[in-house]
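Standup notes
- DV: blocked on the single-chain target, sequence here:
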Amino acid sequence: MYMHTYGNDNAPAVLLLHPMGITADKIYEIIGSRFKGDYFLLIPDMGNHGMEKSEYISAENEAKNICEYLDEHGLTDIALLYGASMGAAVALRMLSHSEIKVRSMYLDGAPIAKLGFVLTRLFAPVLIWQRGIYEKNDKKRLAEYIERWGDDLNDHMRETFIGFSDASIRNIAQVCVKGNMVAIPEELQRHTYMEWGKNEDFAKKSPKLARSLYPLAHIVVRSGYNHCEYMMKKNSEYIAGIEKVLETARAEGV
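- DV (later): unblocked, structure below
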């Protein structure tokens, strides 16, 4: 884990955890740089992403490394914990580290429920196949990714995917398929927002399970959107939603 920091280190801490294929610098560009308030942004490159060249091992391992960094640097009070996809799984695993106080949380495309047998078997091979598409620069197959995320993010993901090892891909796949059902304290549930695109695989089971496990959380399934797609296609609205969760918690003195 390689931590990037941005902004005033005396301001409230905001931790942003990237999804698979997107590095810390790019998440800062897409989300962090657009925050209107004065915050201290912490954005780690997790295993096999950006500046972190070591293998991605597990969500638990990434959570442990991040929490150790926060503890060592006296940054244990987190105003907002944000995670998308793989990053959402890591965010949930961080909650078992009692030394870290999380005041609000925003999760996009969180793999909470365990996927079915077929998807579990196919997830890693599909990701390796996706890396092959990027390696071959298959324009026909890349058209779907470009439509979903745009040219710039697709080019960024292509560069990141090409650098992935088979081991990292298999380990990331495990994070996504095995489920991440963790306890969220009631106080944090009230300041937790979870969203999925209705067209994504994780939306088949995870929102229903989340409503059962976290009845006080705010849960939205966006019709017409795929996995982490709303982030790019409605970026201004997306950022405003994240800021609202953060500011509501702060206004209520959480």
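- Follow-up: The radius of gyration is 17 Å.
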